[in-house]
Amino acid sequence: MSLVPIILSGGAGTRLWPLSRETAPKPFMPLPDGETLLGKTAVRASGLPDIAGLVTITNRDCYFHTKDVYSDVAINVPRLTYLLEPFGRNTAPAVALGALYAEAVFGSDATLLVLPADHLIRNASAFAAAVERASSLAQRGWLTTFGIGPTHPETGYGYLECGKALDVPEAFRVSRFIEKPPLADATAYVTGGSHVWNSGMFCFTPSVMLAAFAEYAPPVLEAVRSVWQPLRAQKDAGMLEIDAALFAAVPDISIDYAVMEKAANVAVVRGSFDWSDVGSWQAVSALTEPDASGNRGQGERVAIDTRGTFVHAQDRIVATVGVDNLVIVDTPDAVLVAHRDQLQRVREVVGELKARGHDSYKLHKTVSRPWGAYTVLQEGSGFKIKRIEVRPGGILSLQLHHRRSEHWVVVSGEARVTNGEHVYTIRTNESTFIPQETRHRLENPGLEALVMIEVQCGSYVGEDDIVRFDDQYGRVRT
Questions:
Q1: 326-330 and 335-339 as β-strands: parallel, antiparallel, unpaired?
Q2: Three-state SS for 268?
Q3: Which domain holds residue 222?
Q4: Sheet containing strand 398-400, strands side by side
Q5: What string of DSSP letters covers 72-120?
Q6: Quick one: which H or E segment has residue 452?
Q7: Residues 223, 125 share a domain
Q8: Residue 132: which residues within 8 A CB-CB, separation 6 or more?
Q9: Which pTM value belongs to this model?
Q10: pLDDT digits 0-9 by tens, 227-270
Q11: Are 189 and 299 in a shared domain?
C-alpha cells in the first residue's frame, strides 16, 4: 500500500529566539551541523519505502523558502505537493485538509504519515521500522501515534499511557492522553514503563481519519470541506493556495483535542529511535559536544573561568569570563543571555517585542525572498540602507512606494531596471534613482548573482509601504 508523508511546517519557535523568527521559524533554523530540521525531516520521509508522494502544509510566506530547502537536500519523490495556509490554524485543520487532499489524489485507503517539520531523529532505520508497524495498524483501522520512551522527567511534553498490548510488536492501545505533567508524575513515568512521550507524529488512512472528524469534530470537518471544495479542481497542481476568507472560518484547534483524545481506536507504537523536538536552547545545546568544563557552542568563542555555558557566536567572537550555566546567542541584530534554568521564558521576550512593535520578533537582518535576499545594513530616522542580492533570473515585483524614494548602486552583476516608462540596464559601479510614487522593478538577467546597495529616503521606510502591480511569485492578489 502506498505511503504518503504529510509534513506540517508551522509555528514560530518562540523559545528559540533570536535564531528562530516568525518569518523564518524553527524548521528553517540552521543546526550546529549546518542543516535544517525541515531538510532533515524531508530526507527522512522521502527515504521510506513505497512513497507515492510528499505533501507539505506550510504558510504561504514560507513557500519559496521551503522549496529552496528541498532543493538543497535533493528531495526525489514521485509527486511533491504544497498546501499553503494564509495563516496558522493549528494542527487539526491541517490534518483534515491533508486527509481530504490524499483521499482525492491517492485514494481513501492510502497510508498517511503526519510528521512535524521540526523534529530531530537520527536513527533512520529504527524510525522506518516503527513506520512499518504503524502502517500495518493504520490499514486495520487504527489512528496510530508514535510514543517515545522518556529518558528524563520532562514537564514540557505531553504523555501517552499505554494500555493493552496489540498484536504488532511494541504497539499498544492508548488508554489516556496526559498533558504536561507535574515533576513528580513525570519522574514516576521514567521508571514506570507504561508511559511514553507524545511525539505528535501520526499514521492513518484518509477514510479512518475523516470518519473520526465526522464523529468527534464535525464543525472542523465541515469548515475544512468548504476550504477544500474550490481546491479540488486544482488537485493535480504542485501548489494549492488556500483561500484566506474560507480558512478564517475554520476552528483553531489541535488534532489531539479535536480527535485523538476522544477516539476509541487510537494506538501507539513505541519507537526505539532517538527523538527530540529541539524545543529549547537546552535541546540545541545538547547537539554539540562539551569541553572539559561542560561548555558547548558554535562559532568563535573564548571561555575564561566559564562552566556549563552554551554560546552561539555568529558574526563575531563572544568571550565569557567567570560565568556559569548561561546560554548566549549572538546574531547580527539581537543577543540573548539567559540562565539555563530560565530558558522556557525566552518566549516572554518575543511577547515583549511584539508588544513594543519591534520587528526583531519576526524578521532577521537578512530576509529571504523568492528572488534572493536583502540585509538591512543601517536604519535611522528617514532612511534605511540595504544590501540586496538577486539570484540569476530573479525578478522583483512591479511596485511603487508612497512615502520613500530609492537610490540603487550595483556592486556586482548586471541589473535590468524598470523606472516608470523607461527600461534600461545598469552595471557594476553604476547607479539609478527611483522617485517616490514611481512604478519600478528590478531584474537580474545575468548568470551570476546581482549585488546592489539600496538607500531608501523618506518619511517612512517600513516594509509595508509597498504596492505590487505584478509579481511572478504570486504575491499580487487579483
A1: antiparallel
A2: strand
A3: 3-271
A4: 422-427, 414-419, 440-443, 398-400, 467-470
A5: HTT---S-EEEEEESS---HHHHHHHHHHHHHHHH-TTPEEEEEETT-B
A6: strand 450-458
A7: yes
A8: none
A9: 0.89
A10: 999 999 999 999 999 999 999 999 999 999 999 999 999 999 99
A11: no
